[in-house]
Specification:
about 350 residues; alpha+beta; Helix Hairpins; about 40% helix
Length: about 350
């Protein structure tokens, strides 16, 4: 009985295995593709990866980096906003720099005031005091001279009437009064002449130096207000209020790298496509006069004709469009730039990856 049960189980297992093999051997109907792959519209077309960017006469998108570091205090624009040249974009904390500017302005004002004081010399009051000192010295000299004359006259009439000591004292008093008159006279002339020309020149140089330092600090203070370098549209804002920025840009949490604080594009509706042609395919590129291309938006069957703009005549190392080098060998590519007008109802954004076929007219 036991052997019969085992035999039945083995037979059932064999039948199950045969049934499973038959079921899984039947080919399943393939699922239809979500979208059709981009077809080559040319007989000998060249395929290239492309990235959509804002159309610029030169370069790529406008990447804005602040010239000074600090935390962001205010963001004054929003993504997608059209701005003009000089429009404030964001404000960085300028507390310390503003205090430096105020201090240097006070120093420059003080130096300028001292320069004006030197140029305004002699001061009327000082000159009047010096003149009064001269008049007093003249009076003292006259008094001493009169006393000496009297003593000498008396001595000539009667040498016994004046002692030698009194006569010598009168002579000395007259000399002291004359020397004092000479000193105060020279002091008056010095006061009347005003500030020394070298003192004025030295103070003028100091005032100019402090004025330039104040101007430089003021110019640096203006850098804390980041402004639009040209007319355009704000494509991306990569910071938030409180984020720390520097001339390297802002730290991106997701890529763990530094990125531009703000990315701007041109204000026109024209977009550009930057294609990278592998160096092996460069000899197959048609002449510029005959070159044409079509762009295919991934995930759709939409294709857009492209207008050739220029070739960037410099073959550079190939990189992924994420800006990370992946290849282990030195592969190089040639950038080719096209432009196009987005058709009505078709949404295309800068930074979008597209498929491009390049052919000959």
């Amino acid at each position: 009985m036991r052997n019969k049960i085992i035999f039945a189980l083995v037979l059932l297992g064999a039948l199950g295995a045969l049934g499973s093999a038959y079921v899984y051997a039947v080919p399943s109907k393939p699922l239809p593709p979500v979208f059709n792959p981009a077809p080559d519209p040319y007989a000998k077309g060249i395929y290239a990866n492309g990235i959509v960017e804002s159309f610029q006469a030169n370069g790529e998108n406008i990447n804005i980096y602040p010239e000074v570091p600090g935390p962001v205090m205010r963001i004054l624009v929003v993504e997608g906003q059209a701005v003009t040249l000089g429009t404030p974009l964001l404000q960085i904390d300028d507390t310390v720099q503003r205090a430096i500017v105020e201090q240097q302005k006070s120093q420059a004002d003080a130096a300028q005031a001292l320069l004006q004081e030197l140029r305004a010399q002699p001061r009327k009051e000082n000159l009047e005091v010096a003149r009064a000192q001269v008049e007093m010295a003249q009076a003292s000299l006259k008094t001493a001279q009169d006393a000496l004359d009297k003593q000498q006259s008396s001595y000539k009439l009667d040498p016994e009437s004046v002692s030698k000591d009194v006569l010598d004292n009168a002579v000395n008093a007259q000399k002291v009064a004359r020397a004092n008159l000479e000193v105060v006279t020279r002091q008056y002339e010095l006061t009347k002449a005003g500030a020394w020309v070298f003192d004025v020149e030295n103070q003028q140089k100091q005032a100019e130096a402090l004025g330039k330092a104040y101007a430089a600090s003021s110019a640096l203070l203006a850098k804390y207000n980041v402004k639009a370098p040209s007319d355009g549209v704000v494509l991306s804002i990569d910071v938030a209020v409180g984020s720390y920025v520097s001339p390297q840009g802002a730290y991106d949490t997701y890529t763990e790298a530094f990125a531009p604080v703000i990315v701007m594009g041109s204000s026109s509706g024209t977009l550009a496509v930057r294609c990278y042609i592998d160096e092996i395919l460069i000899p197959r590129l048609p002449p510029a006069s005959k070159l044409q291309a079509q762009m295919f938006i991934r995930g759709t069957s939409t294709k857009i004709p492209l207008e050739f703009v220029r070739v960037q005549p410099y073959v550079s190392p190939k990189i992924q469009l994420s800006n990370e080098r992946q290849e282990k060998v030195d592969l190089r590519v040639l950038p080719v730039i096209f432009r196009f007008e987005p058709p009505p109802g078709v949404q295309v954004f800068p930074g979008e990856l597209v498929d491009v076929y390049i052919g000959e007219k």
